[in-house]
Amino acid sequence: MVQKVRDVMTADPITVRADEPLSTAAKRMRDGDVGAVIVVDGSELRGVVTDRDIAVRAVAEDLDPRTLPTGELAGHDVVATSADDDAETAVELMRTHSVRRLPVMDGEQIVGMVTLGDLAVARDGDSALADISSVAPNN
Question: Which domains are assigned to the chain?
Answer without folding.
Answer: 5-134 (3.10.580.10)
